[in-house]
Amino acid sequence: xxxxxxxxxxxxxxxxxxxxxxxxxDDDLHAVNGRRDRLAEKIQxxxxxxxxxxxxxxxEWQRSAHESWFKKDEHPA
Length: 77
Fold this sequence. Notes:
Blueprint: H1 3-8, H2 10-20, H3 26-32, H4 36-47, H5 51-64
Helix pairs in contact: 3-4, 4-5
C-alpha cells in the first residue's frame, strides 16, 4: 500500500501501528500524524534501534498494510 493512503487515513491505521509497536504511546502516534519519518523516529527512540532498522520495520509494516485493517464504511479524515 502506498504511504499516502496510510497517511491520509492515519487515524484508522494508528491502532494497527500500536499493535505492531506496543511501546509507542497514543501521544507518540498522535505526534506521528501519518508521517513516515516521524514514525521511524519514534520507533528508534522507544525501541533503541538504529534508524536503518526502524525504517526497515516501517517498510515491512507498510507492505503488510491492507484495506481490511479498517471498516469499509469509514472515510478518510
